[in-house]
Amino acid sequence: xxxxxxxxxxxxxxxxxxxxxxxxxxxxxxxxxxxxxxxxxxxxxxxxxxxxxxxxxxxxxxxxxxxxxxxxxxxxxxxxxxxxxxxxxxxxxxxxxxxxxxxxxxxxxxxxxxxxxxxxxxxxxxxxxxxxxxxxxxxxxxxxxxxxxxxxxxxxxxxxxxxxxxxxxxxxxxxxxxxxxxxxxxxxxxxxxxxxxxxxxxxxxxxxxxxxxxxxxxxxxxxxx
Length: 225
What we know:
The chain is mostly beta strands. It has helices at 7-11, 82-88, 202-205, 209-212; strands at 21-26, 32-37, 45-49, 52-59, 67-73, 77-78, 101-111, 116-125, 128-143, 155-166, 185-195. Helices cover 9% and strands 42% of the residues. Strands 1-4-5-7-8-9-10-11 form an eight-stranded antiparallel β-barrel.
């Protein structure tokens, strides 16, 4: 029988006796914050940010009461083109020396179905805060299998989200010349795994990969020296 992931199933994850927020941990090894932008109506320029973090306080009985914040290291922008990325880091675009981070803070969360919803929030870029709406979907809700070392059969909830921002709303209005290849609208493409680190046994917590990789100084994951 096909397993159907529902929001109700997410809300059942380690649900406390009373409605309250419970913190989940961002699995940095299985998360991507991507973006793409028009390039003269040719192949779209696609990139991502390589360094980020966040806090995910999920009310499992009442998703609208959840609170999410994500902070991105703007200097970690990566479009697989060093020259372009260096330009994007300048005052023409991200202005890294003055504004090293960009931040998303959630506001109203509305469920349209058991697996899909919208998240209103505030995106702060270049010191300017503007509203943003993200469409999201819960795509998985299960435990890692026991044959994967150092994942401890930990429960994971996976989400995909998308949205669009107008860069000029944040004062990023640089255009090199008429017909410049730099688009105005930036589409976001986000993939997130959240893991329930509070549920793993203490004896195995120091070796658990998703709960430690990127969160614990000196921790190395599989295949890393």
